[in-house]
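Lab notebook, bench 4. The sequencing result for the construct came back, and we need a structural model before the next group meeting so we can plan mutations. Quick request posted to the team channel:

Model the 3D structure of this chain.
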Amino acid sequence: MSLWVVRHARPLVAEGTCYGRLDMPADSQDTARAATALAAALPPQGTIFYSPLQRCEQLAHALCALRPDLASNCMPDARLIEMDFGTHEGQAWAAIPHALMQAWTDDFAHHRFGGGESVQQFMARVGAAWDDYQQRLRDSPGYDVVWISHAGVARAVQLLSQGQRQVLQAKNWPQEGPAFGEWRCF
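Done. Here's the predicted structure in token form:
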């Protein structure tokens, strides 16, 4: 049994924009390509959970259209939403004052960037979904689980899979997540 953490396709947002919970669609052609690749790679049977943000929901629905065997076990899970960047959502990263970025870096675990969610809150939320996955693994092994989500969630899962529940410094946060429409297995 594996956990597939899939990143949504390229969102329709200007390059360099801060977005986490900001809800926007993904490029439809990129979504179709990602769904086709994922449909070919996934084994038979399994459960799909997806972030209810439309860029993830699009990919979940496109995947289920290609793989009807997965459609009855496909459901949203709000714990898989990207980190909330509060008032910075929708702003250009370059327009966010350096002092505000520094405040986040200085207290990476607890600072609520833009008044949104702290990294520790985010890790706790994704950690609860991870714990449910681990329980499912113990109770009914054999079927893969797919999370259609975001790069931040994939980074959090990378840490959770290594037993890390806290990220005290920005330098310890994984820099690389899956590319748009790609995935990692844990």
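Helices lie at 28-41, 54-66, 68-71, 98-106, 119-139, 151-161.
Will bring this to the meeting.
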